[in-house]
Amino acid sequence: xxxxxxxxxxxxxxxxxxxxxxxxxxxxxxxxxxxxxxxxxxxxxxxxxxxxxxxxxxxxxxxxxxxxxxxxxxxxxxxxxxxxxxxxxxxxxxxxxxxxxxxxxxxxxxxxxxxxxxxxxxxxxxxxxxxxxxxxxxxxxxxxxxxxxxxxxxxxxxxxxxxxxxxxxxxxxxxxxxxxxxxxxxxxxxxxxxxxxxxxxxxxxxxxxxxxxxxxxxxxxxxxxx
Length: 226
Prior knowledge:
Helix content: 25-40%
Oligomer: single chain
Order of helices and strands: HHEEHEHEEHEEEEEEEHH
CATH architecture: 3-Layer(bba) Sandwich
Mean pLDDT: 94
């Protein structure tokens, strides 16, 4: 990952595409991506009942000034991705920053690390995905010499390129590559419709699973076990 770079322009999906993705479950999006793009279960939504969804503006490292540069460059509808290296000892995000971001139309944050002020984040209804919480924050500057803004970052082995869309709910978070956004929306919507119709037809009916297992060699034993 390049350091000491600030890239001001990124290719974003349309607001309509972001809105469409925000209505789709993260699990169904992962299915549409061929079981790819899911971040680790360790990154969890700390603001229950909300959905994280937006174009990624990336900040490499935990430093506050680098993160503020990303905030300054973010546009309404974006989320800030703080690639803080997954550290669990100190937080690098909290309620004051969230309130400022919200005032600029930024719709959420994903922190590869820890955050604090969770009660405030929930009061603000600011979608926040992180590895956990701790009241102890960094002493700044913190790794500023290696920071960057709007460069590709890697979290949990998944590359997040600025302009990719992150969708996070209580199941987890998935990265949708910018180039695949339109296809993923269409595929996910079609799959959800087909799934709903399939299960509507099966309502109250046997699923036929016993017969299917019998055909594969399972033994059927009748009568009550003693």
